[in-house]
Write a structure and sequence with these properties.
Blueprint lengths: L11 H13 L1 E8 L3 E8 L6 E3 L6 E5 L10 H15 L28
Antiparallel strand pairs: 1-2, 1-4, 3-4
The structure holds zinc ion.
Length: 117
């Protein structure tokens, strides 16, 4: 990385940039204490240890893995997207032409006001 983490050579801008980069590289890790339950810890990406001290009882809690909350799409919209995507590859096949439905038509009301021959 181009920015120095510490030392006299680090400029103010470099320090700001490295702080910003570090903030962007933070991730939330989940741990599970056997006595107190789950808790989250924010650490730099890639620095999460397998065990972390519980903030309540200070016992070593083990790291747990769960699915990331990346989806902002509602389940309905996601299902429609999946259906549309599936229809591209394998569209629903019909065995016969759908029955013809006749819509009864009423004459336009202005036609009754026209002169008859
Ligand atoms: Zn605990």
């Amino acid at each position: 990385m181009a920015y120095a983490r510490s030392g006299r050579a680090a400029t103010h801008q470099g320090w700001l940039a490295s702080t910003e980069i570090r903030r962007l590289l933070m991730a939330t890790y989940e741990y599970l204490c056997s006595r107190c339950g789950p808790f989250d810890v924010k650490l730099e990406i890639g620095t999460a240890p397998k065990g972390y001290g519980c903030p309540v009882c200070a016992a070593i809690a083990r790291r747990v893995y769960s699915s990331p909350g990346l989806s902002l799409t509602s389940k309905t919209v996601a299902a429609l997207h999946a259906q549309e995507e599936q229809a591209r590859e394998a569209p629903a096949v019909v065995s016969e032409v759908p029955p013809r439905t006749r819509v009864p038509r009423r004459p336009h009301p202005a036609l009754s006001r026209l002169p008859r021959p």
